[in-house]
């Protein structure tokens, strides 16, 4: 599957610069940032140990609590894929490398979910995959897989290995029962502070496009003729897709490793 | 043409709480929950009902298939996974469906 769209998107990385929150630095020497190319389908918490390794000797041991990440005053949800976080918080590509602040103190309880181990990231990822498969195939594909295949799927994500990931993930691209379509499309739309998730059945309507789905998710955003105002930007995987794209096609090609389409709507 | 509301979904959702594994059965199983409440809120509410110790785990499942993220709102879960005008959630003290 070389050159395929999912593979190309997998290869798209976000340059990021992780800096320790200045008020947490207790050493006289300022730590240099950690520079990384973040895979879009990865999770920030996978890099926690790297942050601990790099920054821990710049602060007081007893003040070291759970690591959390922040950009522009916004705590970053570790359970969202990196690419989604970037599309949500960075409206333009001018903020590169993406400057992320690393904190070891004052974990924002109530705003962020805690992540105590890598097993929790894996458990969360598998839950989202299970939800996606519930929607696409009534769970038939994931339930038909062995535990080792589940592990391989996660391992591919964790190690940023597309071939390993896709060797299992391609099974989720089959149609539901005898049809060519998914039963429902796993889709989340993000607009301002809201997350909208509704049921979209592609087999009902072969013309189920991104535009159609958005008019249902955000009706007040659209004019009576179902067009978008000029100042609205629709972003997924860092790209503004044509609104005439079929939702089924987008789901097969533009989903994140969690098998969800994450569509960010920005209104300036 | 009528103006559409952004959220034309109900403000309250009927939630049916079912035990899985060796989790205790609740006397009152059906609850009306505000659609804006999160999974985390339901877990906290259930923990109080079941008189869970701080050290006890409690897992919540949708469709006996997946554990929804704590920040998911009940309204959206009902919209996608509700049936017969209610949302069935299974709860367990150990991981039942992974």
Automatic annotation (TrEMBL), chain B:
<dbReference type="GO" id="GO:0000045">
    <property type="term" value="P:autophagosome assembly"/>
</dbReference>
<dbReference type="GO" id="GO:0031386">
    <property type="term" value="F:protein tag activity"/>
</dbReference>
<dbReference type="InterPro" id="IPR029071">
    <property type="entry name" value="Ubiquitin-like_domsf"/>
</dbReference>
<dbReference type="GO" id="GO:0034274">
    <property type="term" value="C:Atg12-Atg5-Atg16 complex"/>
</dbReference>
<comment type="function">
    <text>Ubiquitin-like protein involved in autophagic vesicle formation.</text>
</comment>
<protein>
    <recommendedName>
        <fullName>Ubiquitin-like protein ATG12</fullName>
    </recommendedName>
</protein>
<comment type="subunit">
    <text>Forms a conjugate with ATG5.</text>
</comment>
<dbReference type="GO" id="GO:0097352">
    <property type="term" value="P:autophagosome maturation"/>
</dbReference>
<keyword id="KW-1017">Isopeptide bond</keyword>
<dbReference type="GO" id="GO:0034045">
    <property type="term" value="C:phagophore assembly site membrane"/>
</dbReference>
<keyword id="KW-0072">Autophagy</keyword>
<dbReference type="GO" id="GO:0061723">
    <property type="term" value="P:glycophagy"/>
</dbReference>
<keyword id="KW-0833">Ubl conjugation pathway</keyword>
<dbReference type="InterPro" id="IPR007242">
    <property type="entry name" value="Atg12"/>
</dbReference>
<dbReference type="GO" id="GO:0000421">
    <property type="term" value="C:autophagosome membrane"/>
</dbReference>
<dbReference type="GO" id="GO:0034727">
    <property type="term" value="P:piecemeal microautophagy of the nucleus"/>
</dbReference>
<dbReference type="Pfam" id="PF04110">
    <property type="entry name" value="APG12"/>
</dbReference>
<dbReference type="GO" id="GO:0000422">
    <property type="term" value="P:autophagy of mitochondrion"/>
</dbReference>
<comment type="similarity">
    <text>Belongs to the ATG12 family.</text>
</comment>
